[in-house]
Amino acid sequence: MSLDALGQVFHQLEQQPAWRRRGQFRRILGNWSAVVGPAVARQSRPVRLEQAVLHVAVINPMWAQTLTLERLSILKKLNQQLGLNLSDLRFSSGDWFRRPSP
């Protein structure tokens, strides 16, 4: 199976409702730096997408506060540039050092 065929399989899976959110999150991860800029991307990372709310881990509470003030601008960019329909962003330093659960 070629890589092109594998990409088509992923694309078809992501069209199904159960997989659509995973595809959206994958697009966010792949484009996070382009949307927020490299300086902000070094201090933050998306960690999960729940019911149209993107949760973002940040390095410290100061970044959480700063990005919360900029959240509407970031939200607008994400929705426009990636064709998403996110309703909100949540920033937290608590997820920064937490290991992903298996």
Textual characterization of the structure:
With 102 residues, the chain is an alpha+beta fold. The protein has a three-stranded mixed sheet. A hairpin with a 2-residue loop joins β1 and β2. The longest helix has 20 residues. It is elongated.
Strand count, sense and barrel status of the largest sheet are: 3 strands, mixed
Task: Determine the strand fraction and express it as a percent band.
Answer: 15-25%
Query: Any idea what the shape is?
Result: elongated
Rg, Å, rounded: 15 Å
Secondary-structure-based class equals alpha+beta
Roughly how much helix do the residues carry, as a percent range?
55-70%
Read across the widest sheet, the strand sequence of neighbours is: 1-2-3
Number of helices: 5
Averaged pLDDT: 87
How are helices and strands ordered from N to C? HHHEEHHE
What's the N-to-C terminus distance?
A: 28 Å
Poorly predicted spans: none
The tally of strands reads: 3
Give the key terms.
elongated; single chain; 102 residues; alpha+beta; 58% helix; 5 helices; three-stranded mixed beta sheet
Which SSEs are present, and which pair or pack?
Blueprint: H1 3-14, H2 17-36, H3 38-43, E1 44-50, E2 53-58, H4 61-69, H5 71-82, E3 88-92
Parallel strand pairs: 2-3
Antiparallel strand pairs: 1-2
Short description:
With 102 residues, the protein is α+β, with helices and mostly antiparallel strands. It has helices at 3-14, 17-36, 38-43, 61-69, 71-82, and strands at residues 44-50, 53-58, 88-92. A 3-stranded mixed beta sheet has the order 1-2-3.
